[in-house]
Amino acid sequence: MSKAGYLIVVLYFVLISIAQSSSSLAEGEQPFSPAVDVATGALHVPENYTEWPTLGTWAHANTGESLEKMGPGLHEYHTVYTQPETIAYYKKTGRFPDGAVLVKELLNAKTMAMTTGPAVGHATTIKGWFVLVRDTKGRYKESSLWGDGWAWSLFNAEDPNHTVSKNYKTDCIPCHVPARELARSNAPDADKWIYAFGYPVLQKK
């Protein structure tokens, strides 16, 4: 085979390799996280998140004005989901892996008397979602929704693809400050933003 022929063959296989790589990405392969648009860094609510394991659920009781109007009871549930591999990694290492997604489903709630008790709360309709993605690489530094080891975004129920958050430092961080005081002392700094103590499934047995 001539030198020119050899170069043509090599070029052919290089082009085939590039085409295959581009094709796999075009088919939706997500190299970083299923909640991230890798081109822009924008988050969205993963379509299949309810098929993931539940980390835990938080119940929010009526307080202040709502307590006066509605009496004792619940007004909101927050159910948190993550990938099974995130749980396995955390139990092994004590930290959240790069690309881990936490989806907090915000649910309206109603309290009513039942045979099991006089004030039993249950979820009703979806109010929205809060999505967090662990970022150990410091990606998307120009984005106001990426920083402190995570990507942060809140979504209203009518639009799971476009966040209403503008800046994580003012829109998201304040609600997570208490988590740092309650986190275990040897947790990675970025992981201290997460209320991990409320998720028994993450604890080693």
UniProtKB/TrEMBL annotation:
Keyword DNA-binding set for record: no
Q: Which UniProt keywords apply?
A: Signal
Q: Which InterPro entries match?
A: Cytochrome_P460, Cytochrome_P460_sp
Species for this entry: Nitrospira moscoviensis
Q: Which residues form the Cytochrome P460 domain?
A: 46-180
User: From which domain of life does this come?
Assistant: Bacteria
Its name, as the record gives it, is Cytochrome P460 domain-containing protein
- Asked if the Swiss-Prot or TrEMBL record annotates the protein with the keyword Cell cycle, the reply is no
Lineage, opening ranks: Bacteria, Pseudomonadati, Nitrospirota, Nitrospiria, Nitrospirales
User: Where is the secretion signal located?
Assistant: 1-26
